[in-house]
Amino acid sequence: MHRQVWLTARALGLLATKENKDILKDIGTNVKEKWDKFAENLKPILGFLPSFDNIVKFIGGSVTKGLTAIKGFTESGFDSEEFKKNWGSAVGLLGSVAFLLMPGKFIRALKFLAKFAFSKKKLVATLAALAAGTFAV
Predict the structure, then answer these.
(1) For residues 56 and 72, is the Cβ–Cβ distance under 8 A?
(2) Mean pLDDT for each 10-residue chunk of the chain (137 residues)?
(3) Which of 24, 56, 120, 128 has a Cα at 20 to 30 A from 39?
(4) pLDDT by residue (tens digit) across 62-90?
(5) Are 48 and 27 in contact (CB under 8 A)?
(6) Residue 73 to residue 88: CA distance in whole angstroms
Protein backbone atom coordinates (compact mmCIF):
# COMPACT_ATOMS: atom_id res chain seq x y z
CA MET A 1 0.00 0.00 0.00
CA HIS A 2 2.77 2.44 0.94
CA ARG A 3 4.52 1.81 -2.36
CA GLN A 4 1.31 2.40 -4.31
CA VAL A 5 0.81 5.79 -2.65
CA TRP A 6 4.44 6.75 -3.27
CA LEU A 7 4.21 5.76 -6.93
CA THR A 8 1.00 7.73 -7.38
CA ALA A 9 2.50 10.82 -5.73
CA ARG A 10 5.66 10.50 -7.82
CA ALA A 11 3.68 10.14 -11.04
CA LEU A 12 1.62 13.22 -10.19
CA GLY A 13 4.81 15.10 -9.41
CA LEU A 14 6.28 14.22 -12.79
CA LEU A 15 3.10 15.34 -14.53
CA ALA A 16 3.09 18.69 -12.72
CA THR A 17 5.03 20.59 -15.37
CA LYS A 18 4.54 24.33 -15.82
CA GLU A 19 2.64 23.73 -19.06
CA ASN A 20 0.30 21.20 -17.40
CA LYS A 21 -0.28 23.53 -14.46
CA ASP A 22 -1.20 26.35 -16.87
CA ILE A 23 -3.57 24.04 -18.76
CA LEU A 24 -5.22 22.93 -15.50
CA LYS A 25 -5.61 26.56 -14.47
CA ASP A 26 -7.33 27.29 -17.79
CA ILE A 27 -9.58 24.25 -17.37
CA GLY A 28 -10.51 25.40 -13.87
CA THR A 29 -11.38 28.87 -15.16
CA ASN A 30 -13.49 27.40 -17.97
CA VAL A 31 -15.35 25.04 -15.62
CA LYS A 32 -16.03 27.88 -13.19
CA GLU A 33 -17.40 30.12 -15.96
CA LYS A 34 -19.55 27.33 -17.44
CA TRP A 35 -20.91 26.30 -14.03
CA ASP A 36 -21.74 29.87 -13.07
CA LYS A 37 -23.51 30.41 -16.42
CA PHE A 38 -25.35 27.07 -16.03
CA ALA A 39 -26.41 28.00 -12.48
CA GLU A 40 -27.55 31.44 -13.63
CA ASN A 41 -29.67 29.96 -16.46
CA LEU A 42 -31.32 27.41 -14.14
CA LYS A 43 -31.85 29.78 -11.22
CA PRO A 44 -35.47 30.61 -12.23
CA ILE A 45 -36.27 26.91 -12.53
CA LEU A 46 -34.44 25.41 -9.56
CA GLY A 47 -34.34 28.37 -7.23
CA PHE A 48 -30.80 28.42 -5.89
CA LEU A 49 -27.72 26.62 -7.14
CA PRO A 50 -24.40 27.22 -5.38
CA SER A 51 -21.65 28.92 -7.31
CA PHE A 52 -18.56 26.95 -8.33
CA ASP A 53 -16.52 28.94 -5.80
CA ASN A 54 -18.91 27.94 -3.01
CA ILE A 55 -18.67 24.28 -4.02
CA VAL A 56 -14.86 24.42 -4.00
CA LYS A 57 -14.84 26.27 -0.66
CA PHE A 58 -17.17 23.64 0.84
CA ILE A 59 -14.98 20.77 -0.37
CA GLY A 60 -11.82 22.54 0.82
CA GLY A 61 -13.37 23.26 4.21
CA SER A 62 -14.50 19.67 4.59
CA VAL A 63 -11.01 18.38 3.78
CA THR A 64 -9.49 20.80 6.31
CA LYS A 65 -11.95 19.69 9.00
CA GLY A 66 -11.25 16.04 8.18
CA LEU A 67 -7.49 16.51 8.43
CA THR A 68 -7.92 18.45 11.69
CA ALA A 69 -9.98 15.60 13.13
CA ILE A 70 -7.44 12.98 12.03
CA LYS A 71 -4.60 15.05 13.52
CA GLY A 72 -6.52 15.39 16.79
CA PHE A 73 -7.24 11.66 16.85
CA THR A 74 -3.57 10.80 16.30
CA GLU A 75 -2.62 13.13 19.17
CA SER A 76 -5.28 12.33 21.78
CA GLY A 77 -7.48 9.56 20.45
CA PHE A 78 -11.23 9.79 20.99
CA ASP A 79 -10.73 12.45 23.70
CA SER A 80 -9.56 15.06 21.19
CA GLU A 81 -11.93 18.02 20.87
CA GLU A 82 -10.95 18.43 17.21
CA PHE A 83 -11.90 14.81 16.59
CA LYS A 84 -15.20 15.14 18.47
CA LYS A 85 -16.19 18.25 16.48
CA ASN A 86 -15.10 17.03 13.04
CA TRP A 87 -15.33 13.23 13.08
CA GLY A 88 -17.88 13.21 10.25
CA SER A 89 -15.51 15.12 7.98
CA ALA A 90 -12.71 12.69 8.86
CA VAL A 91 -14.89 9.71 7.93
CA GLY A 92 -15.86 11.40 4.66
CA LEU A 93 -12.25 12.21 3.84
CA LEU A 94 -11.02 8.69 4.59
CA GLY A 95 -13.91 7.21 2.62
CA SER A 96 -13.12 9.44 -0.36
CA VAL A 97 -9.45 8.46 -0.28
CA ALA A 98 -10.38 4.77 0.03
CA PHE A 99 -12.72 5.07 -2.93
CA LEU A 100 -10.06 6.80 -5.05
CA LEU A 101 -7.32 4.30 -4.18
CA MET A 102 -9.38 1.10 -4.24
CA PRO A 103 -12.82 1.67 -5.80
CA GLY A 104 -13.62 -2.04 -6.26
CA LYS A 105 -12.90 -2.99 -2.65
CA PHE A 106 -14.70 0.13 -1.41
CA ILE A 107 -17.87 -0.72 -3.37
CA ARG A 108 -17.75 -4.33 -2.13
CA ALA A 109 -17.45 -3.06 1.45
CA LEU A 110 -20.46 -0.77 0.96
CA LYS A 111 -22.48 -3.66 -0.47
CA PHE A 112 -21.53 -5.81 2.53
CA LEU A 113 -22.57 -3.04 4.95
CA ALA A 114 -25.86 -2.56 3.10
CA LYS A 115 -26.64 -6.31 3.24
CA PHE A 116 -25.72 -6.34 6.93
CA ALA A 117 -27.92 -3.30 7.65
CA PHE A 118 -30.95 -4.85 5.90
CA SER A 119 -30.53 -8.19 7.67
CA LYS A 120 -30.04 -6.69 11.17
CA LYS A 121 -32.51 -3.78 11.17
CA LYS A 122 -33.07 -3.72 14.94
CA LEU A 123 -29.33 -3.77 15.68
CA VAL A 124 -28.66 -0.99 13.16
CA ALA A 125 -31.54 1.11 14.58
CA THR A 126 -30.16 0.66 18.10
CA LEU A 127 -26.63 1.60 17.01
CA ALA A 128 -27.95 4.65 15.15
CA ALA A 129 -29.92 5.74 18.24
CA LEU A 130 -26.85 5.27 20.41
CA ALA A 131 -24.72 7.27 17.99
CA ALA A 132 -27.30 10.06 17.88
CA GLY A 133 -27.60 10.06 21.67
CA THR A 134 -31.35 9.43 21.58
CA PHE A 135 -31.39 5.87 22.90
CA ALA A 136 -33.37 5.66 26.15
CA VAL A 137 -31.88 3.23 28.63
Answers:
(1) no
(2) 61 70 78 77 67 75 83 82 83 80 82 79 74 60
(3) 24
(4) 888 888 888 888 887 888 888 888 888 88
(5) no
(6) 13
The CA–CA distances, whole Å, from 129 to 62, 110, 122, 125, 136 equal 25, 21, 10, 6, 9
d(CA 31, CA 110): 31
Residue 4: CB partners within 8 Å, gap ≥ 6?
101
- Cα 27 from Cα 115, distance rounded (Å): 41
Nearest Cα neighbor of 68 from 89, 43, 41, 53 is 89
Residues 74, 68: Cα–Cα separation, whole Å: 10
